[in-house]
């Protein structure tokens, strides 16, 4: 009887001290992991937006890189699709600019905010998770060689897992504008002014007959004589002056539309460029140059000389 009790006590002690599947263990860093469970892992992703690109060999920006890295516009909501295993509806992702080994805890890294993932299953909610969809918004990394790496959450344990430095799991952010925004606004205003100037001079200068200019330069008022003498050399160029003004006007209008499309969407760019070109690039400047053609042509003669 006593021997049976002792054997039972020894068996219970051995059973309690043994490891069982599903119990928690601790890593060296103190992170809690579950034995017998699988943590979500990523194998790749795709940026599902027009505001992205991929560096390829032969591109000007390739700079000798051996791997292709997806890029997205910084500070803009961009949809991405992730692919991996053991994804669930509780899965979320973060990004870090610090390298780490696959499976390493992201608690020691500086990370972005959390982005929830909407998982898609193969055969309904009971099927296999094939991919996940998330909308991310990341800050611009000013170092041209810096990239973002993925950290994915394990919803069962509640810690974040670094997904390694594979080329398929790197994301680079780029600035939306190729120059500062204030510089683009100044350039748009300048192009609008040039568009109106060339359109107005097209009417103002070419409507002045060379013979009439000679008469004004001889018997006109004091200011009119000065204006006529300034314009006569330009007006003698005739068709060459016409071609220069028309081409310059078309170039300014084209660049204006492109710049507006850069800082806005396509539809707004069409609307604003149409209003700007028709109102401030055609109607207003031609009305002014039709009345003050001599004065405006004389004051802007150096700009016209550059174009001719």
Cα gyration radius (Å): 35 Å
* Count, helices: 8
Which range best describes the helical content: under 10%, 10-25%, 25-40%, 40-55%, 55-70% or over 70%? Answer: 40-55%
How far is the N terminus from the C terminus? 118 Å
**Structural class by secondary-structure content:** alpha+beta
Poorly predicted ranges (pLDDT <50, ≥5 residues)? 1-36, 53-66
Order of secondary-structure elements? HEEEEEEEEEEEEEHHHHHHH
Q: Tally of extended strands?
A: 13
The major sheet is characterized as: 7 strands, mixed
Mean pLDDT: 79
Q: What percentage of amino acids are in beta strands? A: 15-25%
Judging from the principal axes of the Cα atoms, what is the shape?
Answer: rod-shaped
What is the secondary structure topology, with strand pairs?
Elements: H1 2-17, E1 24-26, E2 32-34, E3 41-47, E4 52-54, E5 70-73, E6 78-85, E7 92-96, E8 115-116, E9 118-125, E10 129-136, E11 148-154, E12 159-162, E13 170-174, H2 181-206, H3 210-219, H4 222-235, H5 239-263, H6 266-291, H7 293-299, H8 301-307
Parallel strand pairs: 5-13
Antiparallel strand pairs: 1-2, 3-6, 4-5, 6-10, 7-8, 7-11, 9-10, 11-12, 11-13
Helix pairs in contact: 2-5, 2-6, 2-7, 3-4, 4-7, 5-6, 6-7
């Amino acid at each position: 009887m006593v021997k049976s009790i002792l054997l039972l006590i020894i068996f219970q002690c051995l059973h309690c001290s043994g490891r069982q599947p599903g119990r928690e263990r601790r890593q060296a860093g103190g992170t809690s992991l579950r034995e017998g469970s699988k943590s979500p892992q990523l194998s790749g992703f795709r940026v599902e937006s027009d505001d992205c690109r991929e560096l390829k060999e032969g591109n000007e920006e390739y700079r000798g890189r051996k791997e292709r890295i997806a890029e997205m516009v910084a500070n803009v909501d961009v949809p991405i699709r992730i692919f991996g295993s053991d994804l669930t509806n509780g899965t979320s992702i973060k990004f870090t600019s610090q390298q780490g080994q696959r499976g390493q805890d992201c608690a020691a890294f500086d990370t972005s905010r959390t982005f929830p993932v909407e998982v898609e299953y193969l055969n309904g909610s009971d099927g296999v998770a094939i991919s996940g969809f998330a909308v991310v918004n990341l800050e611009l990394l000013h170092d041209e060689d810096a990239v973002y790496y993925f950290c994915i959450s394990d919803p069962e344990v509640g810690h974040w897992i670094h997904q390694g430095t594979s080329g398929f799991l790197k994301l680079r952010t780029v600035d939306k504008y190729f120059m500062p925004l204030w510089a683009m606004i100044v350039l748009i205003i300048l192009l609008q002014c040039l568009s109106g100037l060339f359109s107005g001079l097209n009417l103002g200068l070419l409507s002045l007959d060379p013979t009439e200019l000679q008469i004004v330069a001889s018997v006109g008022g004091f200011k009119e004589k000065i204006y006529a003498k300034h314009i006569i050399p330009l007006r003698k160029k005739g068709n060459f002056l016409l071609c220069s003004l028309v081409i310059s006007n078309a170039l300014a209008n084209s660049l204006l539309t492109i710049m507006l499309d850069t800082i806005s969407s396509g539809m707004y760019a069409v609307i604003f460029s149409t209003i700007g070109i028709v109102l401030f690039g055609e109607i207003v400047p031609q009305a002014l140059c039709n009345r003050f053609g001599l004065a405006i042509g004389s004051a802007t003669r150096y700009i016209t000389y550059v174009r001719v």
